[in-house]
Amino acid sequence: MVWKPHVTVAAIIESDQRFLLVEEVTSNGLEFNQPAGHLEQGEDLINAVKREVLEETAWQFEPEHLVSVQLWRRNPESPSFLRVCFAGYCHSFDPQQKLDEGIIATHWLTHAEIVAKQDRLRSPLVLIGIDEFLSGKRHPLNLIESFLDLDT
What we know:
Layout: E1 6-15, E2 18-26, E3 29-33, E4 36-38, H1 45-57, E5 60-73, E6 80-91, E7 103-109, H2 111-116, H3 125-134
Parallel strand pairs: 1-6
Antiparallel strand pairs: 1-2, 1-4, 2-3, 2-7, 5-6
C-alpha cells in the first residue's frame, strides 16, 4: 500500500483585526475552520484556494502570500494532511450564493474570540496559521510552481 497525505489548502483572511472563519458540520459536531479544502485533480494550489474560499464563503479571494506549508497528523492512526496556508484579501461578496454543503455560517472573529473557541477548531492548524500570520510570516507566492501537463 502506498502512503499519501491528503493535500489541502487554507486561506487566512484578515480585515480590521478580524479573521474570516467558517462554521461547519463535522463528524465531531460544529467546528470552526479557515476556508479550506482538498486540492482537486488537475488544479493548481492557487486556483484551489480561490475556489474553496468562494464555495465556502461566497467571497472572491486574492492570495497575496504563502504563510506556511504544514504537515499534520492527529495521531498515528489518523490520515496525514499536507496543508498549504495562504494569506490574502476578499472582495466581491455574493449574498445570493449558496455555501458548500456542511457550511452553516461564516464569521469574522478576533484573535481572542478564536482562542476562546479553541476546543471547537477543526484542527490546531487553524490557530497555528493565524499566529504565524500575526507574527509576520509571509512568503512570496512564486515559491509555488505548477507543472501540470508538462510533457518533457
